Amino acid sequence: MREYNIVITGVGGQGVLTASQILGWAALKAGHKTRVGEVHGMSQRFGSVIAYVRFGEDVYGAMVPEGKADVILSFEPVEALRYINYLKEGGLVITNSKSILPIQVSMGMATYPTEEEMRQVIEGDFKAKLISFPAEELAIKAGHIITTNTVLIGALTQTPGFPLDAEHVKEVIRISVPPRAVDVNMKAFELGVKAAKEMLGL
Predict the structure, then answer these.
(1) Which residue, 22, 27, 34, 181, has most beta carbons within 10 Å?
(2) Which pLDDT tens digit goes with each residue over 138-153?
(3) Running DSSP on this structure, what letter comes out for residue 86?
């Protein structure tokens, strides 16, 4: 298959790196040549974190080139905009709709973009599809906020053109989390699947 590129972003402590490892292992399990890369932020200060998952025949480097990401999977809305330069025209942005205000905004030194402004950049400038939903709320409904990454991954598996089988991804999640956390993560995954289907009209 051709290369498929995912950029995962959020702030420290949200589970970005765990999500990249799960998707990377799922791609390997499906038999794809896979590369995973990451850049750590400062979690104690809600620093920005970005990770890359690439798989396919012609994948060599771990970092997704600018303008080549099929998907940006974002744990926080403004982080999707921060790395929008990675998205290819006509790509897909999936984001948790719960915002975490940067310190500059809290101090009145900057403003947080509105949803309309985000849509203009993503859907207008990049001709991309935006899926924004309260993944964090669904994670809490599943049993723990820490499963927000699993909710987002579940949603990703339902998007058109996503090349990994949802069952492969679920199997990797089952063996990646502690045994006591399997049930809550499976609930979170299915809630993400349901949310994506509703938004996509599937």
Answers:
(1) 27
(2) 999 999 999 999 999 9
(3) G
Helix axes 16-29, 166-176, angle to 10 degrees: 120
What phi, psi does 42 have (nearest 5°)? Answer: -100, 95
Indicate the pTM of the whole model: 0.90
* Per-residue model confidence (pLDDT) at position 44: 46
Residue 75 tokens read as: 């744990």
Query: How is 155-192 classified by DSSP, letter by letter?
Result: HHTTSTT--S-HHHHHHHHHHHS-GGGHHHHHHHHHHH
- 14's enclosing H/E stretch is none
Nearest to 20 by CA among 1, 3, 39: 39
How many angstroms separate the CA atoms of 184 and 79, rounded? 26
H or E segment to which residue 198 belongs: helix 182-200
User: CA 47, CA 188: separation in Å to the nearest integer?
Assistant: 25
In tens, the pLDDT along 21-50 reads 999 999 999 999 999 998 765 544 567 889
- At residue 106 the predicted structure's pLDDT band, cuts being 50, 70 and 90, is low
Side chain identity, residue 115? E
Interstrand relation of 34-39 and 129-133 (parallel, antiparallel or unpaired): unpaired
Q: Which residue, among 110, 91, 92, 89, has the nearest Cα to 101 in the 3D structure?
A: 110
- Identify the pLDDT of residue 40: 60
Cβ(134)–Cβ(188) under 8 Å? Answer: no
